[in-house]
Specification:
The structure holds 2 protein chains of 2 kinds. By secondary structure, chain A is α/β, with parallel strands linked by helices. Chain A has one domain (about 5-240): Class I glutamine amidotransferase (GATase) domain (Rossmann fold, 3-Layer(aba) Sandwich), CATH 3.40.50.880. Helix content of chain A is about 25%, strand content about 30%. Chain B is an alpha/beta fold. The chains are: A alpha/beta, B alpha/beta.
Chain lengths: ~240, ~425
C-alpha cells in the first residue's frame, strides 16, 4: 500500500447489518492501524448507496432474518463487494454477515436464500440457538492466538473444499461440527458476534497484515487492557 | 372462588418471601397463584380498566407517571411498581388491589401478545423498541411483528404509541384506535430501515406546528412553530411514513391536541422522562383526566425505585442512574451533571443484565473525554477497553466507597451510571435508597 493513501475500512450496510456492538470491529482495526502510524479512513455504506470498489478491508455485521436477506440481495445486485474481493481486498464478516458470504443460508422459515458466493460454505438453521461464550483454537497456519468471544445464532454451517475452518472449538458451537468460522484467501468469517475483534487483537492484526503487509509491533502498554480482558474472560470460562 | 383461594395462597407465599428477605414477594406470590388457577389473570382483570405499558426503555418510570397522572380519578390504582413485569408480576399486582377499578401494568415486551389476550386492556402504551440484552431477548423486528399481530386482534383497545420510532409506529399501525405521540427518538441505530419493507428510510425536519391546526388554519398559534430535525421519517419504497400526531414533546414543552404548549417542569431529569411524561398525559386524556390536572401530579414524581435518587455519603452527593442498553446509556449520558462532577460507570453481566457485553460498543463515550471518569462493576475491564478505544481517560475502582473517596477529592458530587445488577449492588451498598 502506498503511504499517500489511507487504509480504507469500509463498513457494509451498518443500517441493516449492525445488531450488537458491530462498530467495535471498525474501532479496533482503526486503533491498531493508527497506533502503527497508518492513516485510516472509515467509510460507512448504507444499503441505499453503492458499495465503493476501492476499500482495503470490508466489514459486515450481524442482522435478523429479513435484513440479512435484503442486504444479500442488494449486495448481489450492486456488485461492488464482489469486485473488491476479486482484486484481493480483505472481507471480514461476523454472524449473519458470515452466513451471507457463503453459497446459501437459511432465511425466514428456513427457506434457502442465495448467498454472495465469496466463501465456500453453506448454512442452514439448526434446531437450537447457540448462545454463550465460545473458545476455539485457530488454524495454526494463521498464527493467531485462541479465539474468545460470544456467539448468538441458530445457524449450522458446512464448509466446502475451497474454504478452511478458521478454528476448532473447545467451548461453544461455532459451525456446529467442531469447527468455527471459515476463510478462503482474504475472505474470513466467524460466528463470534458483534465486536469479535475486541478480545481477539491477533485476528485484527491478521486482517491488517493481509491488507497492508508486515506490521511493526505495538508498544506493549497499548495492548495491556485488551490482554487483561482476554485473560479474564478465558479464565472465567475455564473455571 | 377459585380465584380467591389462589390469590389467598399466593398472598401468603408473598408474605413469607418478604419476611424471609428474599425480595418484595411480587413474583413468588403470582407464580403460586397461577399454578392454582392458570386463567387467574383473566379473572382478575375482568371488569377493570387496564393499561399495559411496554417498550425497551422507560417502562417502570412511565408506569409510575401514568399511575400518578390518573390520581385525579380518585380510588385505588393497581400497579406492579416493583418492576415484576411478566405474567406472575401482573397477577400479583391485581391480587394485591382487589378493589382497584383501574390497573396500570408494566409489561415485558415479549409478553405483550399473551397479556393483551388475558387482560383485554383499555389502553396499550408502546414507548420505543431497540436492541436490548440480545442473549436472552427476542430480536426486535420479530417483537414488532408480534405486537402488530396482537394489536390487530384487539379491536377494543386504544394504543398510545410513539410515532417517532418507526418500529413502534409499524407495530401500532394494525390497531383500530391509536393516539400518536411525537415523543422523540434519541437512539436511531435500530431504525435506519423501514420495518415494513426494509428500504433505507428518508428523514426530514418535522413541523409540529400542524398539531391542532385545521387544514389551512394555524390553531391559534403562529406558523413556523416547533420543528425537530430528522424525526419525520418516510419510506420511498412502500410509502410508509410517520403518522400525524396529536401530542408532541418539544424541548421542555408538551404540545397538546389543541396545539397549546405547556412547560413540563418535571422533577425527574432528562429528555427520556419528558418523553415518558407526554405519553402519560396522552393516556390520562383517554381516561378523561385533563392535561393540566395530570401534569400537576407528574411534577410530584421525584424518584422511581431508587432511580435518580440523590444520597449523601461522607459529604458527597451521590446520584444513581440506571441504564440497561445502548439507547438507555445514550439518554443517561445526556442527563449526567456537567464537570467537575466525576462520573462512575459500572457494568455487570449477570443474567438480568445480559451475559454479553457487546452492546458497550454501541454507546458513544467520546463526550466523556476530558472528564473525571471512574470505572467499576464486575465487567469493568470490558468497559475499560471500550473507553480506551474512544480515547476517554479513566480510573478503575473496586467499589462505590472507593469511587466516593476519589470523587470527594475533586467535587462535592458523584454521578453514577450503572446497568441493572451493578445498580442494585450500589443501591444496597448505599442502604437500599428509595
Amino acid at each position: 500500500m502506498s503511504t499517500t493513501r489511507p487504509l480504507r475500512l469500509t463498513w457494509v450496510y451498518p443500517d441493516l447489518l449492525s445488531t450488537y456492538g458491530d462498530r467495535g470491529n471498525v474501532l479496533v482495526l482503526e486503533r491498531r492501524a493508527r497506533l502503527r502510524g497508518l492513516q485510516v479512513e472509515i467509510v460507512e455504506v448504507n444499503s441505499d448507496q453503492p458499495v465503493p470498489r476501492d476499500g482495503d478491508i470490508y466489514l459486515m455485521g450481524g442482522g435478523e432474518d429479513l435484513p440479512q436477506t435484503l442486504a444479500t440481495r442488494r449486495l448481489l445486485a450492486d456488485g461492488g463487494l464482489h469486485e473488491a474481493a476479486g482484486r484481493g481486498a480483505v472481507v471480514f464478516a461476523v454472524c449473519a454477515g458470515y452466513q451471507m458470504l457463503g453459497a446459501e443460508f437459511g432465511g425466514a422459515d428456513d427457506a434457502a436464500v442465495q448467498g454472495l458466493g465469496l466463501l465456500d460454505i453453506r448454512s442452514g438453521r439448526g434446531r437450537q440457538r447457540a448462545v454463550g461464550e465460545l473458545v476455539a483454537d485457530v488454524d495454526p497456519r494463521l498464527n493467531v492466538a485462541q479465539l474468545t468471544g460470544f456467539e448468538n445464532h441458530q445457524g449450522v454451517t458446512r464448509l466446502g473444499p475451497n474454504a478452511r475452518p478458521l478454528a476448532r472449538t473447545t467451548l461453544g458451537i461455532g459451525n456446529g461440527d467442531g469447527t468455527e468460522g471459515a476463510y478462503q484467501g482474504r475472505v474470513l468469517g466467524t460466528y463470534l458476534h458483534g465486536p469479535a475483534l475486541v478480545r481477539n487483537p491477533g485476528l485484527a492484526d491478521l486482517l491488517l497484515y493481509w491488507a497492508t503487509g508486515p506490521l511493526p509491533p505495538l508498544p506493549s502498554q497499548s495492548e495491556e487492557l485488551a490482554m487483561q480482558l482476554r485473560a479474564e474472560r478465558l479464565a472465567a470460562v475455564a473455571r | 372462588m377459585r380465584a380467591r383461594v389462589a390469590t389467598t395462597v399466593g398472598g401468603a407465599a408473598a408474605t413469607v418471601s418478604r419476611l424471609a428477605g428474599k425480595g418484595d414477594g411480587s413474583v413468588i406470590g403470582g407464580v403460586i397463584s397461577l399454578r392454582l388457577a392458570p386463567d387467574l389473570l383473566s379473572m382478575l382483570a375482568a371488569g377493570r380498566q387496564v393499561v399495559l405499558v411496554t417498550g425497551t426503555n422507560g417502562k417502570t418510570t412511565t408506569t409510575k407517571l401514568i399511575t400518578a397522572a390518573l390520581a385525579p380519578l380518585g380510588g385505588e390504582i393497581a400497579s406492579n411498581i416493583y418492576g415484576a413485569n411478566m405474567e406472575a408480576g401482573l397477577t400479583s399486582a391485581l391480587t394485591r388491589a382487589p378493589d382497584a377499578r383501574v390497573a396500570v401494568l408494566e409489561t415485558d415486551e415479549k409478553y405483550i401478545p399473551a397479556m393483551v389476550r388475558a387482560t383485554r386492556p383499555k389502553v396499550v402504551v408502546l414507548l420505543n423498541l431497540s436492541r436490548d440484552q440480545m442473549d436472552r431477548a427476542a430480536e426486535i423486528w420479530l417483537l414488532a411483528r408480534r405486537w402488530r399481530e396482537a394489536l390487530g386482534n384487539a379491536p377494543d383497545c386504544r394504543v398510545v404509541a410513539n410515532a417517532d420510532d418507526p418500529l413502534v409506529a409499524w407495530a401500532a399501525g394494525s390497531a383500530r384506535q391509536v393516539t400518536w405521540v411525537a415523543a422523540g427518538q434519541r437512539w436511531r441505530e435500530d431504525s435506519w430501515c423501514c420495518p415494513n419493507c426494509g428500504a433505507h428510510l428518508q428523514r426530514a425536519r418535522y413541523d409540529g406546528g400542524a398539531i391542532g391546526r385545521a387544514p389551512g388554519g394555524t390553531g391559534g398559534r403562529p406558523t413556523g412553530g416547533p420543528q425537530r430535525d430528522g424525526d419525520d421519517w418516510s419510506c420511498k419504497e412502500c410509502g410508509g411514513r410517520r403518522p400525524p400526531v396529536s401530542w408532541m414533546l418539544y424541548e421542555d414543552e408538551v404540545i397538546d391536541p389543541t396545539g397549546r404548549a405547556t412547560r413540563l417542569d418535571l422533577a425527574l431529569p432528562g429528555r427520556a422522562n419528558r418523553s415518558n411524561a407526554v405519553i402519560a398525559l396522552a393516556v390520562a386524556e383517554a381516561f378523561g383526566v385533563h392535561a393540566g390536572q395530570a401534569l400537576r401530579e407528574l411534577r410530584q414524581v421525584t424518584s422511581v425505585a431508587g432511580r435518580y435518587t440523590q444520597v449523601s455519603r461522607r459529604g458527597c452527593d451521590v446520584r444513581l442512574l440506571l441504564a440497561k442498553n445502548p439507547a438507555g446509556w445514550l439518554e443517561a449520558l445526556d442527563v449526567i451533571a456537567p464537570p467537575p462532577a466525576p462520573v462512575l460507570l459500572a457494568v455487570n453481566a449477570q443474567g438480568p443484565d445480559g451475559r454479553d457485553t457487546s452492546w458497550l460498543w454501541d454507546v458513544d463515550f467520546r463526550r466523556l473525554r476530558g472528564r473525571n471518569v471512574l470505572v467499576g462493576g464486575e465487567r469493568r475491564l470490558d468497559l475499560a477497553v471500550r473507553l480506551e478505544a474512544d480515547e476517554v481517560a479513566f480510573r478503575l475502582v473496586n467499589d462505590i466507597d472507593e469511587a466516593i473517596e476519589a470523587a470527594r477529592a475533586v467535587a462535592p458530587n458523584l454521578e453514577v451510571l450503572a446497568n441493572y445488577t451493578a445498580f442494585q449492588q450500589y443501591r444496597v451498598a448505599l442502604g437500599r435508597v428509595q
